[in-house]
Design goal:
By secondary structure, this protein is of the alpha/beta class. Helices cover 44% and strands 16% of the residues. The strands form three sheets. Strands 6-7-8-9-12-13-14-15 form an eight-stranded parallel beta barrel, surrounded by seven helices. A five-stranded antiparallel β-sheet has the order 1-2-3-5-4, with helices on one face. It has a two-stranded antiparallel sheet with strand order 10-11. The longest helix is centred in the middle third of the chain and has 28 residues.
């Protein structure tokens, strides 16, 4: 994996071959020095590029070699020097986000994207504020780690950067300062799922109490806009009666108002055309009906919000780290995905008619049974969002090069599970998770194929990474065995991306 290119003969360092790039009369590259990596710049001594970076300089004949640590300041300078590393809006093209909780996975993600080919637009820098808190990372860390991975692999195609599941304007400000371009607004705290079952009196009281000034309308005007009106969407016809409108407004009205507030703030801190918005209402208890989808989209549009993708709450269960579970099923594959196909097809038709905009698959990791179906019905207008699966693949790799570490992480995860599962929709049964000492070394990676063990390992990532023993051991092991990690990531993400390519 390392080489000494002819033009860098005098450097005599193990260089990542795909990283070598010339910009003017400066040559940039990434080199491995023990377990550390360094940005190298070889240029004439008078080259201004050398002054933009911090590092140790040495003379090599008529040229200067600068070896720079992988700091935030140097990552920012690199993005200025090599502009294709700067995140940008990706528009309506089929796209996929690869969350990376460790900051080590981008080379593996790049390998998968290259193997699949096609025109899938990639987001390699993606993390939610919640995940950043649990991993001790900052928005700058997320973007910088992706930058170094992209340089290492020589990726030149456009990339986005997803500030995921933002809930406050402070969240927006932190990610805007770092340079993110894709902002996922999560108004889940403002969704009222009880509206699906409230009695008439409760429903009317909630409807009257909606934040009408923030919605820039009145109860009378809202009824006039919807009740009795027909909306034809391709071969589907939708109509909201009085009760359906009131329930939709109570369930999502405050969420719509919150998204509008967040969007206006985002537009005040980011230049026009430099960002794009995703709206996510997926982390709620009850599905988003087609009529509710229409309500959300029409009201956001009326309020001046512009977005590139929307994540409704689809039917069935999108549990973390495992395949899709159909309505009425207990585990993946129990029942056919027919209900999802019908539901998604309706949402896709609405997105085409009221946008167009992409439909987003959140908690999208490992939902292999539905990718092809979603891509087909969306006709390419789809965004896949993955997060924790890259951490799980890190554990798979660890199971091959350090079985003792894997056992320790599994035992720790079992002990932490009841606490760490609180913020997740999961259904792992602890009784079905094997005890670490009952498994042979060769059996450990197979736990990543077992439903219950996979979820237990998934939701405890933050505790593992913060643990003063396990976190450093895992990071050191993956750094020392990076090729093993990249290989398992490549295999895994080819399975995610390949179904999306056929419907672009």
């Amino acid at each position: 994996m390392t080489m000494t290119p002819g033009e860098l003969w005098s450097v005599n360092l193990p260089i990542y071959p795909n990283s070598v790039v010339r910009a003017g009369d400066a040559t940039f590259f990434l080199a491995r020095m023990g377990l550390k990596k360094r940005l190298g710049i070889l240029a004439p001594a008078a080259n201004a590029a050398l002054r933009a970076f911090e590092g140790e300089a040495s003379e090599r004949g008529a040229e200067t070699l600068l070896l720079s640590p992988l700091t935030h300041a140097n990552a920012a300078a690199l993005r200025r020097a090599l502009t294709w590393l700067q995140p940008q809006p990706l528009g309506l093209d089929t796209s996929a986000g690869c969350g990376d909780r460790l900051g080590l996975a981008t080379p593996g993600h790049v390998a998968a994207a290259r193997a699949v080919g096609g025109d899938i637009r990639m987001i390699f820098a993606q993390q939610s504020i919640r995940e950043m808190v649990r991993t001790g990372r900052s928005p700058d860390d997320v973007l910088d780690d992706a930058t170094w991975g992209l340089l290492q692999e020589g990726w030149r195609s456009p990339v986005g950067a997803d500030a995921d599941h933002l809930k406050t304007t402070d969240d927006i400000d932190r990610c805007a300062a770092a340079g993110f371009t894709f902002y996922t607004i999560d108004p889940g705290d403002h969704v009222d799922p009880a509206a699906d079952s409230d009695d008439e009196a409760a429903l009317r009281a909630k409807f009257d109490a909606l934040p009408w000034p923030a919605l820039a309308t009145t109860a009378h005007d809202l009824r006039t806009a919807y009740v009795g009106k027909r909306l034809e969407v391709e071969d589907l016809v939708f109509a909201l009666d009085e009760e359906a409108l009131v329930r939709a407004a109570v369930k999502y009205g405050r969420a719509v108002a919150h998204v509008a507030t967040m969007y206006r703030h985002l537009a005040s801190v980011r230049a026009p055309g430099s960002f794009e918005l995703e709206v996510s209402v997926d982390e709620t208890d009850t599905p988003t009906s087609h009529a509710e989808h229409i309500f959300i989209a029409r009201e956001l549009r009326r309020l001046g919000v512009r977005w590139v993708s929307l994540a409704p709450r689809y039917v069935g269960r999108f549990e973390k780290g495992v395949d899709y579970i159909a309505p009425g099923g207990d585990r993946p594959g129990d029942l056919p995905i027919d209900a999802f196909a019908r539901d998604f097809a309706g949402h896709a038709a609405i997105a085409r008619a009221l946008g167009p905009y992409k439909l987003s698959l959140h908690s999208g990791s490992d939902k292999f049974s539905i990718y092809a179906c979603a891509a087909e019905h969306a006709r390419g207008l789809v965004h896949l969002k993955t997060a924790g699966t890259s951490y799980l693949e890190a554990l798979r790799a660890a199971g091959t090069f350090d079985p003792a570490l894997f056992r320790d992480i599994l035992a720790f995860a079992i002990a932490r599970y009841d606490t760490d599962k609180a913020s997740y929709h999961i259904s792992a049964r602890m009784a079905l998770v094997p005890a670490p000492d009952t498994l042979a070394d060769a059996e450990l990676p197979d736990l990543l194929e077992q439903f219950d063990a996979r979820q237990v390992l998934h939701v405890t990532f933050g505790s593992v990474l913060r643990d003063p023993d396990l976190g450093p051991r895992l990071m050191a092991g993956l750094t020392h065995n990076e090729e093993a990690y990249y290989r398992v990531l490549e295999r895994h993400f080819i399975r995610h991306l390949s179904p999306l390519r056929g419907n672009q």
